[in-house]
Amino acid sequence: MDKSFLNTQIVNEPGSKFLYNSAATYMLSAIVQKVTGQKILDYLKPRLFEPLGIEGIDWEVDPQGINVGGWGLRLKTEDMAKFGQLFLQKGVWNGKQILPKAWVEEASTMKIMQDPSAPQDKKDASDWLQGYCYQMWRCRNNAFRGDGANGQFIIVMPEQDAVVIITAEAPDMQSEINLVWEYLLPALKTQKVPTNKAAYAKLKNTIQNLSLPIPQQQANSTIQANIQGKTFAITAGDVSFKNIKFDFQDGVCAVKLGTDTITHDLKFGLGKWIFDQTTKRGPYLVAGAKANRTGLPAFKIAGSYTWQDNNTLILTLRYIESPHTETIVCKFDGDKVSVDFQNIFNQNTKRALFKGIQTVSRPNAPKLIIRGDDMGYSHSGNDALIQSYRNGIETSIEVIVPSPWFPEAVKLLKENPNIDVGLHFAITSEWDNVKWRPLTDCPSLKNADGYFYPMLFHNKNYPKQAVMDQDWKVEDIEKELHAQIKMALKYIPRLSHVSGHMFSLGFAPEVKEMAKRVAKQYNLPMVDTDGTQDYKINYTGFDARGLNTQQKIQAFIEMFDKLEDSKTYVFVEHPGLDNHELRAISHIGYEDVAEGRQDVTTIFTSEEVRAAVVKKGIELVSYKDALQKLK
Question: What CATH architecture does domain 367-630 belong to?
Answer without folding.
Answer: Alpha-Beta Barrel (3.20)
